[in-house]
Amino acid sequence: MTTLPLDPAPIRALFPAFAEPSLNGQAFFENAGGSYTSQATLDILDHYYRATKVQPYGVYAASEAAGQAMDRAYKQLAQALNVATDWIHIGPSSSANTYVLGKAFADWLKPGDAIIVTNQDHEANTGNWRRLAERGMEVREWQVDPETARLSLDSLDTLLDEKVKLVAAPHCSNIVGDINPVAEIAARAHAVGAVLAIDGVSYAPHGLPDLAALGADIYFFSAYKTYGPHQGVMAIRPDLARALPNQGHFFNDAKLRYRLTPAGPDHAQIAATAGIVDYLEQIAALAPASIEGADPFRRAHAAMRAQEVALAAPLLDYLRSRNDLRLIGPADATTRAPTIAVLAKEPGIDIARRLARHGVMASGGNFYAVRLLEALGIDPHNHGVLRLSFVHYTTPEEIQQLISALDTELQ
C-alpha cells in the first residue's frame, strides 16, 4: 500500500471506540451508516449535560453558557463550510430536515413549475421532492447510466429549461460513491434560475466541503456520520431561507434558525456539533506539511481524502480482480468516496452476516436507494448489495482483514 499521509494511531486515539474492549479486533466497514463519535464531540456533550442542561438563552449564568455553547456550534460549522453563520440550520436528522423543506417548497413553488430529481439519491433527497407532483409541480428525473450508475451532465442539460425552479442531486451516492461535479451542476441550475439542493450526507464524512466554491443554495448532511451527535445540519442561502414559507411557530417568523427546523431543538446535541469542527482542526494539526489548504478545514479535507484514496486502492484492485462481483460505480479511488458497494450472486446481507465471523462489520441491502438499484437491474428488496464503507481512521491492516474475509467467504 502507498505510504499513508496520516498516521492512523494518533487519529484513532481521538475516538473512544478504538479503546473499547468489546470492539477490539472488529474492523468497522459500515461508516456510511454512521461513523464513530469523536472524543471532542463527547466532551462537549458530557459537559453540557453536567453543567448547562437548562433552558438556554436565559438571564442566569448556566442558561447564558448553554446558549453560548449552541451559538458556538453554529459559528464553528459555518466557518468550516466557508459560509456566514446565518446559513446554518440544525434539525433532528437529514430526512426530517428535507421533509420540512419539501413542505416549504410546496407552498413556495407554483403549479406548472418543474423540479429535477435523480434516481441516484438516497430517498431523503428525492422522495420529499417527488411529492410536490401532488401539488401540481412537474417532476423530471435525471437518470443514471444503467451500466456505470453515474450521472451525466449532458443528460442534465436535456432536462433544464426556464420552467425548472429546483434541482436536487447528491454530492455522492451512498451506493455508487461517484463524486458528482457540484460546481458544474450549480452553474447549470443557476443559468436557468433554479435553486440547487445538494445531499452531502455521503460526502461530508470524507471532509466538509467549501460551500462558497460549490455554489449550492442548499447543502445538508448528517452530524452522526461526521463524527458528531445524531443531528442533521443544513446550510441554506439566507435570502432563500427567508423567502421560503415559515414552517415553525408564527411568532418565530423573524428567527431564521427556527423557520425551517420546527421540531424543538436538542440543545445539548446542537452544542456538541461543534465537536465535529474541533475534530477537523485536530486532523489538520496532524497532517504533514505536504498537505496544503487555505485554512485548517481545507487541509483536513485534503488529508482525509488523500488517506482514503490510499486505503481504497488495494480494495478496489481486489474487487476488480473478481469475476463473480460487480463493482457499483467507478473503480478509480481518486474520483469516488470509499463507500463501496458490490453485487454478488447472493444477497448482500447474507455475505455481511458471514463477514461478521471474521470481525468485519459491514451490511447489505438497498440503503434507502431503492430507485437506484431498480435502475441498475438489482432487486432492492430480496437481494440488494454488499456495502463496504470506511473513512480516514481505517487502517491498512483492516483493509487486509476485509480482503481476507471476502476471499474466504466468496469462494
From TrEMBL:
<dbReference type="InterPro" id="IPR015424">
    <property type="entry name" value="PyrdxlP-dep_Trfase"/>
</dbReference>
<keyword id="KW-0663">Pyridoxal phosphate</keyword>
<dbReference type="InterPro" id="IPR015422">
    <property type="entry name" value="PyrdxlP-dep_Trfase_small"/>
</dbReference>
<protein>
    <submittedName>
        <fullName>Aminotransferase class V-fold PLP-dependent enzyme</fullName>
    </submittedName>
</protein>
<keyword id="KW-0808">Transferase</keyword>
<dbReference type="InterPro" id="IPR000192">
    <property type="entry name" value="Aminotrans_V_dom"/>
</dbReference>
<feature type="domain" description="Aminotransferase class V">
    <location>
        <begin position="28"/>
        <end position="402"/>
    </location>
</feature>
<keyword id="KW-0032">Aminotransferase</keyword>
<dbReference type="GO" id="GO:0008483">
    <property type="term" value="F:transaminase activity"/>
</dbReference>
<dbReference type="InterPro" id="IPR015421">
    <property type="entry name" value="PyrdxlP-dep_Trfase_major"/>
</dbReference>
<dbReference type="Pfam" id="PF00266">
    <property type="entry name" value="Aminotran_5"/>
</dbReference>
